[in-house]
Amino acid sequence: MNKIFAFDYMLSLFEQWYKEEGKGTMNFQNCSKLSVLKLLFLAAVPKREDSRDLLDVFDNFHALPYGPVESDIYNAIQDKKLPSYIVTERSITKKENVMLPYKIEDYISIKDAVNALKEKNKHLILLNAFALVEITHKWESWKQSINFAKLMEMSSYKMTVESIRNDRNKYFE
Fold this sequence. Notes:
Strand content: 5-15%
Number of strands: 5
Number of domains: 1
Order of helices and strands: HHEEHEEHHHEH
Largest sheet: 3 strands, antiparallel
């Protein structure tokens, strides 16, 4: 599964969810890069003991001061490599007349993960970036990695897939 295409599709699902929960009063364009990177983490992680997660696809999370960031996705955003969205610090713009380079039906697991996240907290999509940061800061896997980064005098440190999967503190609120 191509993670950039998977994230692009995830953004379309976030946009749909945002419209459903915002009831037309809020505009998805006003979301930020920080918000969608936190939502990506929360969508990718395991929600229940028996559920599949997306950590085999989104496998490059790093602990940064504002929470976990999937570095490959961050770089794709920075390099404007998403097929149908332009994501900036303060906005998300859908590109016009885009022919998707992927088939949505190949990415059913993305839809399942976003739906599982909705079940955990349907209002999550409407939270601002810093409320989402606070949620991700409750995860032990992030705390351990950011503390190690500080100890090593580094600005970030890679979070292992195992540490995220085995995290006892799975917060979504």
